[in-house]
Amino acid sequence: MDKITTGITIEELVTELPASVNYLMEKGIKCIACGEPIWGTLNDAAKEKGFLEDEITGFVSDLNRMAEELKP
Q1: What average pLDDT values come out for the chain (72 residues) when binned by 10 residues?
Q2: pTM value?
Q3: Which residues contact residue 15 at a Cβ distance below 8 angstroms, ignoring those fewer than 6 apart?
Q4: Distance CA 23, CA 19 (A)
Q5: Do the beta carbons of residue 66 and residue 23 sit within 8 Å?
Q6: What residue ranges do the domains of the chain occupy?
């Protein structure tokens, strides 16, 4: 998986890093609707929930760390 950025689509994120679903749900960011990933980017979804740029940057850092830890 390439490095995660704020521009990654939710669909790509949950496909490439399934563990991200729980992380995003803990943050209150809806990423699955009716069993399918929602449309839009991580940045869009986080901003819809009122998160600020520095918080979103923190999410990206956390998700990249998670991806590294889960690498086979």
Answers
A1: 90 92 90 69 93 97 96 82
A2: 0.87
A3: 37
A4: 7
A5: yes
A6: 10-69
